[in-house]
Amino acid sequence: MIWNEPRECMGRDEMHHLQSCRLQSVVKKVYHNVPFYRTKMQALGLEPDDIKGVEDIAKLPFTTKQDLRDSYPFGLAATPASEFVRVHASSGTTGKPTAVPHSRKDLEMFAECVARALCCTGATKNDVIQVSYGYGLFTGGLGLHDGATKLGATVIPASGGNTRNQLTLLQDFGSTVLACTPSYALFLSEALAEAGIDSAKLPLRIGVFGAEPWTAEMREKIETGLQIKAYDIYGLSEVMGPGMSDSCEARNGLHIAEDHFYPEALDPDTLTAVPDGVVGELVFTHLTKEAMPLLRYRTRDLSSLHHEACACGRTNVRMDRVKGRSDDMLIIRGVNVFPSQVESVLLEIPEAKPHYMIIVDREGTLDTLEIQVEIGERYFSDEMAQLSTLKNKIKHALDNALRVSVIVSLVEHKTIQRSEGKAKRVIDRRKL
Ligand code: DLL
Fold it and tell me: Is the CB of 77 under 6 A from ligand 1?
């Protein structure tokens, strides 16, 4: 089922027209109501009427996370605070958070996008959706909650953590859809196995996983562990939250709700558009947001766009699964390394678990890259020779894939901390 067929299957020309009209009105709105944008546009010699449609988007100024921090909490708002009905905040680990106000209409749009995303996965009103994303300022919990409610499904507002209880809820309430981070889904699948619960006997059938990068190999691992079909849901709190895009049953990328968020993929150095299929930084412009519309928000997420038709019938542009963030990319002795590459390699090695930690350090002037890898219980051995062979096998595979020499440390089952939300995979000691 397609939740909003007129919008999700719109002809490209019609979509272009809709986006252009909406962009013109959003530009007028921020020019007249947000001093930050007025100043930026004036500095560029731009008047709202210079923007005739989305083909003029490149004329507009960018917005960065730093701009949101500098105007914390509500300096970029375009409506009076009396119009706000909820505020979310980003889960930033450094510096000040970023606050994002929503009007009533913004929350309706949020729920609409999440309902579309859930429909994309094949979920219907007959499903029981266990929302195991954290509830609170993070958009995962309440975002999925409102979207699942709009869909008419039964919501189990489990929130993150308390794994024992998650397993009980899965069994007692017969959850058919699980929404959480992919790392927590993996953890839950291990916890089920340890508790002796056969996942094939549970009614669970769909996973709606996102909020952190994950690989196709990780998807397979989770699908086998939980006996479900896993879908990728993407979004960021500054723009909305989950549901900005979601993978469909064709599993051919994530459809973006482009009638609400105009996407661009830009070369991160030149900030000019890259062609379809080429990886660039995703940049979004709000087309309908009321409380705090942003022009050309730089996400730092790396992905590519695809405009050709999808087998599912939706015409909305697709993005590939996020490869990583430009600011997650490690530069080790001049070589670019993404944590997702490490994950792909480890998932190809049966003895290794996809639980890993990347530790970057500097010895003198030389960067070192240590990868701690958890080994399956039955592969851990007292035989030094066996462990050493395994270590070399993993090192060889990682060295080849990353094109940089790594130090592999094998650690025992359950040594690496499990996450209930976004997993932390990298410790960069060079910055300390
Ligand atoms: O993580 C919103 C969300 C909640 C998305 C639940 C999906 C599910 P933030 O905390 O603001 O919002 O973090 C946004 O997380 O810029 C990406 O780097 C990353 N991210 C989100 N979804 C995905 C995904 C939420 N499916 C940041 N794949 C984004 C890869 C993702 N990275």
Answer: no
